[in-house]
Amino acid sequence: IVALISGGHVYGRCHREHSGYAGAWVENPIEFSNEFAADLIEDEWMMVEHDTKVNGVLIPEETRPAPGKRQYMSKWEPSEEEIANGKPNPPVMEGKLQKVSYQMMLPSDMVMLWDPDFRKHLEVYAEDEDQLKEDFGKAYKRLTENGHTGCPFAKRS
Fold first, then answer.
1. What is the pLDDT of residue 149?
2. Taking the C-alpha atoms of 66, 71, 135 and 27 in order, what is their torsion angle to the nearest 10 degrees?
3. How far apart are CA 23 and CA 30, in angstroms?
4. Chain centroid offset of residue 32 CA
5. What is the pLDDT, as a whole number, of residue 34?
6. How much is the pLDDT for 152?
7. Per-10-residue mean pLDDT for the chain, 157 residues long?
8. How far apart are CA 105 and CA 73, in angstroms?
9. How far is it, in rounded angstroms, from Cα 30 to Cα 13?
10. What is the pLDDT of residue 33?
């Protein structure tokens, strides 16, 4: 499960309107890497809710969950400009894509950091992207094939 989550959460982001959670897990969510595992271990995280404020400023929209949801985001302190304006800076766009300024983690992601049995695998993947790629590939194949090794309707001789 650690390989599936660590490999799967490097792609895309959560969309508040679909899941209630908001934000991307990694800075470059369109390329396979071990960034999810490495950042989960190395970065500082803060638990946030929809109305969480830091120094009187709401957390950035990019990582603000829907009301009633809790998630984690990379530690954030508003700049002097944001404090003066009373709101965070708007998301930065790179063409049609929103640049990831702040990362998020789901509560279920954080369990892999806190639980020693999960964490030992997480630490391997944080250090060894090739190992993550190999284990993720095997786990994803097994998951998507549901244990089948070929077409279930093919004649066997």
1. 65
2. 80
3. 14
4. 13
5. 97
6. 58
7. 94 94 94 96 97 95 96 95 91 84 96 97 98 95 77 58
8. 6
9. 10
10. 96
Q: What's the CA gap between 62 and 47, in Å, rounded?
A: 14
Tokens of 51: 């109305």
Asked whether 105 and 45 are in contact (CB, 8 A), the reply is: yes
Residue 46 to residues 143, 144, 155, 156, Cα–Cα distance (Å): 32, 34, 55, 55
**Residue 35 has what pLDDT?**
96
SS3 of the chain: the string is CHHHHHHHCCCCEECHHHHCCCEECCCCCCCCCCHHHHHHHHCCEEEEECCCEECCEECCHHHCCCCCCEEEEECCCCCHHHHHHCCCCCCCEECCEECCCCEEECHHHHHHHHCHHHHHHHHHHHHCHHHHHHHHHHHHHHHHHCCCCCCCCCCCC
Tokens 């300024």 label which residue?
Answer: 101
Distance between CA 123 and CA 59 in Å, rounded? Answer: 29
Token pair, residue 76, equals: 């954030």
- The pair phi, psi for residue 38, each rounded to 5°, is -65, -45
